[in-house]
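Appendix B, record 7
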Amino acid sequence: MYEPFDPAQEVQDELNEEDAEDLEETMVVADMTGLAPKRPILFPVFDPGKQMDAQKERVQNASRQQTPVDIDREGRLAAIKGALGASLLIWLVYAVGFGLFIFALTRLFKIF
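C-alpha cells (predicted):
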C-alpha cells in the first residue's frame, strides 16, 4: 500500500523525544507581527498634532520636488490653449460617439 511522504515525520523519527519537544517550542511558522495596523481600524484615534505635522511634511516635500519653470506670457497662453484644445477634442469625440449612438437607436426603432 502506498504511504505519502511526510518530511516532518522523517525528522520526528530521527529526533528523540526531548529534542522534538524543544524543536516544536522554538519553531516559528510565520511571523505576522509586522502586518498589524499601526492604528485601530474600527475606532480610529484622531490626533490633530500628528495630522498637522504630516501636512507640513507633505508641503515641504512638495516644495522640494517642484522645479521652477521660466516661461513667458506667450508660452503660458500657448500651454493654456493647448490644454483647452485637447479637452475640447476629447469632448468632441464623446459628442460624436453619443450622436452616432442616438442615430443608430432612431434608425433601429424607426421613431422618426
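Remarks on this record: The helical segments are 7-14, 17-26, 48-65, 73-109. The chain is about 65% helix and 0% strand.
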